[in-house]
Amino acid sequence: MKAGAKQKCLAHLQRDLKALKSSRFRDNQQFSSDVDQVLEMARGYYRDYQTGKLSGAELAQKRPMVEELLQNILNNPPAKGWPSDSQRLAHRRFATLAGVVYVYELPTSQTG
């Protein structure tokens, strides 16, 4: 996937999460908030990489934690399950979310 396509995918994900924040269903709002927190954390790590606070290797070490946090959101739905809007977003976009966040920001061939 090219960087432009990854950026577009991330932009679509962010748009969809924003729409869930205004949902009338509290669980959609919670899902959006939880995912957005993880994305903001990942963006913060990337900003630290860009400013030299983290090396490429250090940034790469953060990826498993971010992926685990995202997976924990999916694996711990509310008692009644995720509302259909959240489920749809999770199935459509979540499978590649962690990869999009990091592959877009740091090519796998980059180290150091």
Structure description:
This protein is mostly helical. 74% of the residues lie in helices and 0% in strands. It has 5 helices and no strands. The protein has helices at 3-21, 26-50, 56-75, 84-93, 97-105. Helix 1 (3-21) packs across helix 5 (97-105) and helix 3 (56-75) packs antiparallel against helix 5.
Task: Quickly describe the structure.
Helix content is 74%, strand content 0%.
Strand-residue fraction? under 5%
Overall 3D shape: elongated
> How many domains in all?
1
Unreliable runs: 1-6, 102-112
Summed over residues and divided by their number, the pLDDT gives a mean of 76
Taken in chain order, the helices and strands follow as HHHHH
User: Structural class, from helix and strand content?
Assistant: mainly alpha
Describe this protein with a few key phrases:
5 helices; mainly alpha; 112 residues; disordered C terminus; disordered N terminus
Which SSEs are present, and which pair or pack?
Blueprint: H1 3-21, H2 26-50, H3 56-75, H4 84-93, H5 97-105
Helix pairs in contact: 1-2, 1-4, 1-5, 2-3, 3-5
